[in-house]
Amino acid sequence: MAKNREVSRERRRRRVRAKVAGTPTRPRLNVFRSLQHIYVQLIDDGAGHTLAAASSLDKEIKSQSGLKKSDEAVAVGKLLAQRAQDKQIKLVVFDRAGYRYHGRIKAIADGAREGGLEF
User: Fold this and answer.
1) What angle do CA 9, 12, 14 make, to 5 degrees?
2) How many domains does the chain have?
3) Which residues are 16's β-sheet partners?
4) Can you say whether the dihedral through the CA atoms of 24, 27, 32, 33 is positive or negative?
5) pTM for this prediction
6) In-domain check, residue 106
């Protein structure tokens, strides 16, 4: 069962990445979700550089104790949006990396939108 889930996610990831690419003016907002933490990056695929990043391991997020994983994801999205705006980035392309747009992935997107990023 777990192998099929991994294969299905990898198939979805490839399908999404075939259509989504980041540029310097509109970077790709990439999400990685593990069982305990969540990580997001703004990536310029042309140059192969990470422009901004945030995760649930950052001091700003860890200091807020007692958060549920979905609340943590919203906070990570807001933190990334703040770091992106510091670098004058407002427009992004959302790359859910094969994860279904639900739960923590949706919470990241909502937090980033609240922080001022436009998808």
Assistant:
1) 110
2) 1
3) none
4) positive
5) 0.88
6) yes
